[in-house]
Amino acid sequence: MKRKTGPKLEEERRPEPKAFLAYLGHERNDSPNTVKAYARDLAAFERFCDQYFGGAEAWTWQSIDRLAMRSFMGEMARKGLTKRSVARAVSTLRTFYRFLSQRYGIAENPATAVRSPKTEKRLPSVLDRTQVEDLFRMAESCASKNSFAGVRDLAMLEAFYATGMRLSELTGLNLADVDLVSEHVKVRGKGRKERLLPLGSHALGALRRYYPLRERKLAARRDGDRGERAVFLSSRGTRLSPRGAQFVVRRFLAQITASTGLRVHSLRHSFATHMLDAGADLRAVQELLGHASLSTTQVYTHTSVERLKKVYDQAHPRA
Predict the structure, then answer these.
(1) pLDDT in the model for residue 6
(2) Which residues are catalytic?
(3) CA separation for the pair 267, 259 (Å, rounded)
(4) CATH T-level topology, domain 129-260
(5) Where do the structural domains in the chain lie, given as residue ranges?
(6) Residue 43 confidence (pLDDT) above 80
(7) From the centroid of its chain, how far is CA 269?
């Protein structure tokens, strides 16, 4: 009888990671990006264990101990991974072993026996008010030519900054999610939780201007399919991907500042910081951002304080 080898045998030997990822996506309702991150960390850990123990058949989940876990962390550090990446991998394994305990009765959780590396607390990168004005002045200039891309990009940037939604939420918007009459948009965040976000007057105006061009783009599709539900379309008339939206935002950010600290999510960070600067309630900003924990939102209060200190140091004669 021929012996089975390869990926199929590995799947039969260790079905737990597959079951764990299914649990994350279907029961815990984690986002696809979160599930992919867990999958990458688990795959890296399995590859490490195969080498560490001398083969895929030489270890089990029960046989993993504190020493193996520390060796895995050391291996990641030697490969040049950041402390943040190492800490995330340890967190993945802690969650995985809790799943193994609940579903498979594995009592020991070796990931709890090691300390996650302390990561530097980085303040989110934020555009100042002048940079925001420059950004939208430039986007308005591009949209004035009435090209599909220019008008779409303006609408996308306005919606992004007006709501503070995540990039994945922005590109995941469907027409049914946007209510121009009630002036709000419905987004599906982490854990597929829904929340309603108000749309400001600038975002509403930009969307109303964009919609007719969107219809024309759909009408020009070669396959004749006009049933695309996405709000933001690519040049082909299909849903704009997160990568495509990233390219647009990065292109504008690169033109308004030489700073390498600004990222696509800087618009989301700027939304939160500017709201708090203007006196918005922290709990309200938490709801708007879709944060499960208030402590996650509090990082923006630190950003506001740092900005105030900077202004003070520049303006006060005896600072």
Answers:
(1) 46
(2) 166, 190, 265, 268, 291, 300
(3) 14
(4) hpI Integrase; Chain A (1.10.443)
(5) 7-113, 129-260
(6) yes
(7) 12
Single-letter amino acid code for the residue at 145: K
pTM: 0.69
Residues 6+ apart with CB under 8 A from 278: none
In eight-state DSSP terms, residue 278 is T
d(CA 287, CA 222): 42
* Pair of tokens at residue 3: 């012996």
Backbone angles phi, psi at 235, to 5 degrees: -65, -15
Q: Domain 7-113 has what CATH class?
A: mainly alpha
Contact between residue 252 and residue 139 where contact means Cβ atoms under 8 Å apart? yes
244 in helix, strand or coil? helix
State how far the alpha carbon of 226 is from the alpha carbons of 106, 199, 216, 304, in Å: 52, 26, 10, 45
In angstroms, the CA 43 to CA 21 distance is: 12
Which conformational region is residue 280 in: left (phi greater than 0), alpha (psi within -120 to 50 degrees), or beta?
beta
For 42, 244, 279, the CA distances from 13, given in Å and listed in that order, are 15, 39, 56
